[in-house]
């Protein structure tokens, strides 16, 4: 009798505990369902729309996210450089190339998964938008992202650990176009690391 | 031994069921979803800063971009149509309408709007027919957004190209009006 009771209890523990834990884990893990990968960058065009996967919907509800609408823009996130090594705050990167046509774009290094910008020391540039970017003669741009000041466009990082780069295009046909898979985004190359 | 295996197996099957149940119920039951978070800070028809200088230090809604000021207003179309407008101009604004669960149902930018003015009326199809019979003077230049959702969130985002724009954008965001009827 007692044994049956214990076994029933065990079943319920596994069901409820396992079910809840697996949802929590799945919401924190990278959601590959809706992901659109272009080079090192990933976007979730369906995020915040009725077409999003149940996982993306649940994660948005849990985190209090109101995603950008398609007419507003689209966000690309990179957590790895173009050679698939994870981005680190202690390293220096060259973000080089061009973006699809957009009214403007913004670029900033962020804490992983939250999109809160890194908080560099007072006065150091922690974000960049395209109206203020210095460009090459051919219209492309080079942005140096790293802990040490660099000439040209520089974004400061600080601390240790992982980071992400968030590139958001605003008012762009790329967000609604069906050819979004064939657009070109900047390359991210590691040029050196501290220590 | 057989019983132990059976209960383990049942546990795993149960876990799967619980997993799916939590997943599907989370968006409607979440107590910390966007709607609930906004409800905790302000009532209906009031724009609340969710990103930017006037926003609380622990933001209610996750800020989308450090270059932006954002403000959100909850509405309920059962009280009548919602009119959202703001005087003045800014370098760039965009706006999204979300349903109660936080799904984007409509978005636009200043390029879509008449003269770049933020002036928008959100209504249900039935209300829209009534409004269009005799368009009030206030709605002359408005963009009409038709939606089946009753409760929703209107979120306005405005770009701050650099620090010198901040006071002007701040004034613009404070001038946002979200009114019923």
Question: What's this, in brief?
Answer:
Helix content of chain A is 19%, strand content 27%. Chain A is an alpha+beta fold and 195 residues long. Chain A has 2 domains: 1-30; 34-193, Jelly Rolls, CATH 2.60.120.
Quote the CATH topology of chain B: Immunoglobulin-like
Span between N and C termini of chain B? 69 Å
Q: Which secondary-structure class do the elements of chain A indicate?
A: alpha+beta
Shape of chain B: globular
Using only CA atoms, what is the Rg of chain A? 20 Å
Report on the structure:
The complex is a heterodimer of chains A (195) and B (181). Chain A has 195 residues and is of the alpha+beta class. Chain A has two domains: 1-30; 34-193, Domain of unknown function DUF1214, C-terminal domain (Jelly Rolls, Sandwich), CATH 2.60.120. Chain A contains two helices and ten strands, in the order H-E-E-H-E-E-E-E-E-E-E-E. Chain A has helices at 2-28, 54-63, and strands spanning 36-38, 41-43, 73-78, 91-97, 104-110, 128-129, 141-146, 153-156, 164-170, 187-193. Chain A has a six-stranded antiparallel beta sheet with strand order 1-2-3-9-5-6, with no helix packed on it. In chain A, strands 8-7-4-10 form a four-stranded mixed beta sheet, with no helix packed on it. In chain A, strand 1 and strand 2 form a beta hairpin. In chain A, helix 1 (2-28) crosses helix 2. The model of chain A has no long low-confidence stretch (mean pLDDT 86). Chain B is an alpha+beta fold and 181 residues long. Chain B has a single domain (34-180), classed as Immunoglobulin-like (Sandwich), CATH 2.60.40. Chain B has helices spanning 2-29, 34-41, 125-133, 166-174, and strands at residues 48-51, 68-76, 82-86, 93-99, 104-109, 118-123, 143-146, 151-159, 177-180. In chain B, strands 1-2-8-4-5 form a five-stranded antiparallel beta sheet. The interface between A and B is large, with 58 and 56 residues.
């Amino acid at each position: 009798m007692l044994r049956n009771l214990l076994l029933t209890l065990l079943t319920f523990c596994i069901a409820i505990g396992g079910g809840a834990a697996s949802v929590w884990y799945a919401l924190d893990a990278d959601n590959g369902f809706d992901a659109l990968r272009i080079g090192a960058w990933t976007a979730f065009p369906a995020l915040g729309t009725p077409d999003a996967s149940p996982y993306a919907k649940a994660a948005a509800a849990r985190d209090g996210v109101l995603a950008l609408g398609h007419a507003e823009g689209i966000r690309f996130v990179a957590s790895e450089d173009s050679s698939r090594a994870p981005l680190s705050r202690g390293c220096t990167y060259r973000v080089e190339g061009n973006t699809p046509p957009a009214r403007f774009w913004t670029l900033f290094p962020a804490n992983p998964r939250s999109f809160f910008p890194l908080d560099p020391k007072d006065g150091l540039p922690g974000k960049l938008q395209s109206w203020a970017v210095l460009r090459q003669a051919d219209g492309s741009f080079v942005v140096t992202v790293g802990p040490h000041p660099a000439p040209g466009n520089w974004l400061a990082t600080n601390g240790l650990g992982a980071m992400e780069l968030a590139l958001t295009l605003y008012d762009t046909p790329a967000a609604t176009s069906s050819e979004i898979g064939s657009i070109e985004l900047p390359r991210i190359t590691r040029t050196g690391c501290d220590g | 031994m057989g019983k132990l295996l059976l209960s383990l197996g049942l546990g795993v099957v149960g876990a799967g069921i619980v997993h799916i149940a939590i997943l599907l119920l989370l968006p409607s039951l979440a107590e910390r979803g966007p709607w609930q978070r906004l409800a905790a800070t302000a009532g209906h028809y009031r724009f609340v800063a969710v990103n930017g200088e006037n926003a609380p230090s622990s933001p209610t809604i996750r800020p989308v971009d450090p270059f932006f000021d954002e403000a959100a207003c909850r509405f309920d179309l059962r009280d009548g149509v919602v009119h959202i407008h703001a005087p003045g101009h800014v370098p760039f604004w965009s706006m999204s309408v979300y349903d109660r669960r936080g799904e984007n149902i409509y978005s636009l930018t200043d390029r879509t709007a008449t003269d770049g003015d933020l002036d928008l009326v959100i209504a249900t199809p039935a209300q829209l027919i009534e409004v269009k019979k005799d368009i009030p003077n206030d709605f002359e230049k408005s963009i009409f957004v038709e939606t089946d959702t009753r409760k929703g969130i209107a979120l306005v985002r405005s770009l701050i190209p650099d620090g010198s724009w901040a006071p002007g954008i701040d004034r613009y965001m404070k001038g946002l009006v979200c009114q019923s009827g």
